[in-house]
Amino acid sequence: MPSVCSRVLPALLLALSLAACAQKPAAEPASPLSGLSSTYTDPYAWLETPDSPDALAWVARQNQRTLAELTQDAPLSDFISTATLLAHEASEEGGSGALPSGGAVDGKDPAVTTIDGVRHVYAGSNCYGTVDPDAPPPAPGADPVVMGRTCLVSLSRTGEDAVEVREYDPVAKAYVPGGFHLPYAKQTVVWLDHDTLLVARGWDSSDAALTRSGYPYVVKVVQRGQPLDQAHEIFQGRVTDTSVSPAIFRDRQGHRAIVLVRRPSYFTTEHYLVEGRHTLKLGLPPLAELAVLANGQLVVKLGQDWQTASGRTFPAGSYVSVDLDAARHDPAKLKAAPVYLPGPREAVTNLVKARSHLVVTSDENVRGRLTVLTRVDGGWKTTRVDLPDMSAVSIKSSSEDKDKLTVTVAGFLTPQAVWSVDLDSAAATLVKAGSPGFDASPYTVDQWQAVSTDGTAVPYFIVHRKDMVLSGDNPTLLTAYGGFNLSRLPTYSATIGKLWLDRGGVYVVANIRGGGEFGPAWHEAALKTHRQKSFDDFTAVARDLIQRQVTQPARLGISGGSNGGLLMGVALTQHPDLWGAVAIKVPLLDMLRYEAIAAGSSWVAEYGSVSVPEERAFLASISPYQRLDPTRTYPETLIMTATHDDRVGPGHARKFAARMEALGKPVLFYESDEGGHGTRGLDDAARARGPALELAYFASRLMPRHAERPAGGQVVAGAAD
Question: For the Peptidase S9 prolyl oligopeptidase catalytic domain, which residue ranges apply (predicted)?
Answer without folding.
Answer: 499-698
